[in-house]
Amino acid sequence: MASPGYDIAPTFSPDGRIVAFIRATGTINQDIYLVSSTGGKPQRLTYANQPIGGAFSWTPYGKKILFSSYGGQESHGSLWRVPATGGMPERLSFGGAEEALEPTLSRQGSLLAYTQVQTNVNIWQLQLSRSHRPMHPPSKLIYSTRVQSAPQSSPDGKKIVFASDRLGSTDIWVCNRDGSHPVQLTSLGTTGTPRWSPDGRQIVFDSPASGTFGVYVVSVDGGAPRQVIVDSHHNAIPSWSKDGRWIYFVSDRDGTYQIWKIPPQGGQPIHVTRHGGVLALESLDGKFLYYTDRWEPSGIWRTSPEGGKETLVIKQPINMWYWAVGKDGVYFIDTDTKPHATVKFWSFATRQTTTVAALAKSAWPYDPALSVSSDGRSLLYDQEDNVNNDIMLVENFR
Predict the structure, then answer these.
(1) Is residue 218 domain-shared with residue 312, that is, in the same domain?
(2) What single DSSP character describes residue 262?
(3) Count of other CB atoms within 10 angstroms of residue 4
(4) Whole-angstrom distance, CA of residue 331 vs CA of residue 345
(5) pLDDT digits (tens, 9 = 90+) for 188-210
(6) Would the N or C end of the chain have less CB density within 10 A of its end CB?
């Protein structure tokens, strides 16, 4: 599989000599590049390795570029300004510059307009019977006025780990299984995809705190996170093997996005998939590794934890974040059902798919949005409960 890179949003400089554009690798690593309007080799302008929030804008004389990014300690889009000749981006700090996307300047440069996005995402719970049917209507379990995502119940079912930006930047939190007593575990800023170790003592997660995405481990009791693998490559979306001996993660270290594994204490990464891989989860018995094979919606694949033959087992487009492995099968969110997306269950025994429940609103598409408890009796999922977009105007902008 080729690396999922693409170029978007071309924008001419005021004199028409230069084209600025966003170069993306997957859906996470994005930066601004410049190229002559007559062609040639593009020059990289930013090194955020973070999503760029849509359109961006040149200043009137082409000396600087305004853009929005989810980089650094910011969990929402914030506005930045960078010299077109290169250099360190400057964060714009006027009131309302948070949760901002798509900045655009007037011809004279004195007016700035941008989109302000306010998103409320909460974690909901669905209790299941032994036949994988809902026992009660879904209930809102973990919530704030901001975003909480990527929930997972601890192996003993007593705790839940999740990511939240309730204090302004996205970090890893742990709470009781009823959502009470939330405790912040990390203070790195942008973090995500937390997963419990099999013994419930550690949590693995990813973060771009070092400048590139890397994999870290933190004790459930808190303390400083420890680096598992942080280098010049994109290393992200970690999960544990069921025996605790390995951490799976996606990396572009061979030029394509594949699943690799590494001991929790660090060491030499080992190739697992060869034909593409992004999010990987072991079966509860440790016999198989299930994974999605690319950034765009696809089916679920299966291989051995040691690698080898790679087989497509669920032949249906599935968002890379919208699935989880249970003890009897795979749960996933089907976004093609109308009028609402539905949670479905694919059985290991029968290889048949059944509908579990309909979602009232959309799931959060930027972190693992679905998980199942180890006993198979509880589903946790992210839900976008409220999204508001407004056009904001700044006068006398400088």
Answers:
(1) yes
(2) E
(3) 17
(4) 5
(5) 978 999 999 999 999 999 998 88
(6) C
